[in-house]
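User: Assemble these into one structure.

Assistant: Restating your components, then the assembled model:
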Amino acid sequence: MISRSVSALVQALAEREISSVELTQLYLDRIARHNLALNAFVTVDPEKSLAQAKRADERRAAGQATPLTGIPLAQKDIFCTQGWLTTCGSKMLGNFVSPYDATVIEHFNATGAVILGKTNMDEFAMGSSNETSHFGAVKNPWDTARVPGGSSGGSAAAVAALLAPAATGTDTGGSIRQPASMCNLTGLKPTYGVVSRYGMIAYASSLDQGGPIARSAEDCALLLNTMAGFDERDSTSLERSREDYSRELSARTPEKPLAGLKIGLPGEFFGEGCAPEVMQLVAEAIVEYRKLGAETVDISLPNMKLSVPAYYVIAPAEASSNLSRFDGVRYGYRAPEYDDLDDMYARSRAQGFGAEVKRRILIGTYVLSHGYYDAYYLQAQRIRRLIANDFIAAFKQCDVIMGPTSPSTAFRIGEKASDPVQMYLSDIYTIAVNLAGLPGLSLPCGFASGLPAGLQLIGDYFSEARLLNVAHRYQQVTDWHQQYPAGFD
Amino acid sequence: MKQWEIVIGIETHAQLSTQSKIFSGSSTAFGAEPNVQANAVDIALPGVLPVLNKSVVECAIRFGLAVNGEVAEKSVFARKNYFYPDLPKGYQISQYEHPVVVGGKMTIQMGQGDSLTEKTINLTRAHLEEDAGKSLHEDFHGKTGIDLNRAGTPLLEIVSEPDMRSSAEAVAYAKALHALVRWIGICDGNMQEGSFRCDANVSVRPFGQKEFGTRREIKNLNSFRFMQQAIDFEVQWQIATIEDGGRIEQATVLFDPDSGETRAMRSKEDAHDYRYFPDPDLLPLIIDRQWVERIRAGMPELPAAKRERFVRDYALSAYDATALTASLEIADYYEAALAVAGNASAKPCANWVSVELAARLNKDGKDISAAPVAAAQLGGLVARIADSTISNNIARKVFEGLWNGEGSTADEIIEKQGLKQITDSGAIEALIDGVLAANASMVAEFRAGKEKAFNALVGQAMKATKGKANPQQVNDLLRKKLG
């Protein structure tokens, strides 16, 4: 039961093979057994989860179930969840019980899904390894000496170790795709504006986007159907009619299901900087895609190399302002002792934030300062436009862009923690997608020395359904995504 | 000694009278218990986002149209970053590089009567922003209380060019602006509650010098009297400082009404770096031209146009027309009264509204919107003066009767209290004969050339009729008899 996909669990619940209470209990037991080794969850509250599961069973009995009714899901601790601690991986919010639900949580609650718990994450989503969490590093289930990726590392570890059927994540520079890649999962960052940011604690507002992390593209589609939708409480949410992201998946599978699909291969993704064994796996996946009927075309994203520097101006700039509300005045952490107001701010923020958060606040404050704004922030915004234009030009030549998700497989805990630039480069293939606001997906494409690698798909704006289908067709002819780490029985 | 020219620019924060806040659905009503009108967005919980209130934009458009400014097709909300306990997000959402209204003009009137002059004050811009909450320093035993009811209240910040040359001009501008924002219904203008507050940028320079002197900004002037006092003090201080060989340092100053002095709050060196940048949570504000035109079509006649029309159509002096267009309520009252009194009574009606009624309202501390005498009642009263039913003096008595509710119309009070003017010349003649007989000594004095005695005799005659005799008739008949 626990290794079943979300869609299989939907069926099991529908056919009364199992109740939501039983299913939820099954996962809660697994969390109790394995979370200590993984540190994937920061909060579990079995009473609350089981009460939700009971209500889901009653709803099903009343004939009012929707597909996700009774499905237990792990929620990244960045989504405000009413009555639950919502810490964002920070000491600053270590005591913050949210009085309201994020729109994404509201949507899941409305379908009757069950919250299994809140997952660990890099502090305020700033990190690529889940080592910056105030609640300790998350371990990769494929090798617990290694990182699961970040910042949605808790969600990825939980799903990989079968402690949850699927989870939510958020992706500002790769925080869904990179941990999905490192944990052998499928993760989707939708087009900016598809999933409401209301109640999703902001890191970099113009880049943040919520999305699903699951074990297959099919499951991602199911979750996205619930997560997506216009929200009038988010001014950057896009007013579009609802769509069924699963719609292309159920089509009959001819021999060459992807005939006519043009895959763009950017030279910039296949040069130096990527581990050869990862490159090999990506190349093999592309061969598989040719077998499915796709053609490949060489493309170029000439400004890609500027994406990491541009990101590390824009994201910290927005973060430095977004995190100003954490001042110890109204909620969250306040230093126990202080002399006056300025001292209270200084001590509360010095004690409440971790090193990486402070680093980004300092960078952001600097680049927005008088006399530096034009040289850094405005320049970065210009680069951002150039990068977006590169993609727009590329999508005139191809339907989907492919390349590695991350330049390496999971690295060792501590390996890059003291070298921020090396850590930042770990998102080199994912960041441009956020800067352009495009949808991106990572799916498992094999193992190097026992560690999973991810293939990244990048689509044009609003092409989530197509990306999911392209991933799904690959997953129908491969079984990488059905490999599970040992040791979590 | 040099002659100094005073240069003043005014920044005004007008609180917009919308039902809800600029970026949240909370009420903006004044005076509620602390923090009951602060929702998740206002207290800046983690994860919340701002959503622009459309009626706030409508207020800005109305203002832009009223001052003939350019309503920007695209304006941008920016974050102004600083830490303060009553600023929940740690930044204020404002507009910086791209304000919603660019340019515009205000006309002010200076002087009285025939020496009335007009001057145009140019506006730099007007932009939308949110207000902060309030810090409460009393009653917390050494701690500070925070009330976030006001946080997120919509403000229109209106910035003038440094076009004013005296404190009187500054006050005239502030009053004209105050009248205008109330006129177009975007601000209640309540200065006690802080709905309309001004900062004055003041500098001095020798006459003839092109460059401006260094300015100091007087913050938070919440009454016109304080504005005048503060500017006068500041100007004298600046001149004295320079003449004593000192230099003016750019600074922000506060006015202390008790001492009548301004004192520096912070110098330029401690000026914040606000690190403005476009708010990524809000899209640029795009204003559709058709929307602007719809609002333009629904705009009331503006003070300047109304003033000109009053002069043209009612033959009023510029001074009277200015007084009657001090607010939309006064103008509407006047025109409603005139509709009853008849256009021929335009001038007396103007006097009744801007002198008699104004004085009576002032005495009771009432606003014209709460005047016990309705416009139609006053119009009816003026009509009775015009047709000589009562004299101006008796009219004051009738007016007082209307004020106190002694009758519902002037006619009713005149009838009930027998105040109708005596115009029967036979009756007046008989009366005058009696007065002459009873005041032989006065008659003698008059005949001896004392003109004063004539007035005394008129007085006696009026007294005998309790003021009801037509004064002109009494005059004429007395002259005839004594002639």
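Chain B touches chain A at residues 40, 43-52, 79, 81, 83, 85, 88-91, 146, 273, 275-277, 280-283 (CB under 8 Å).
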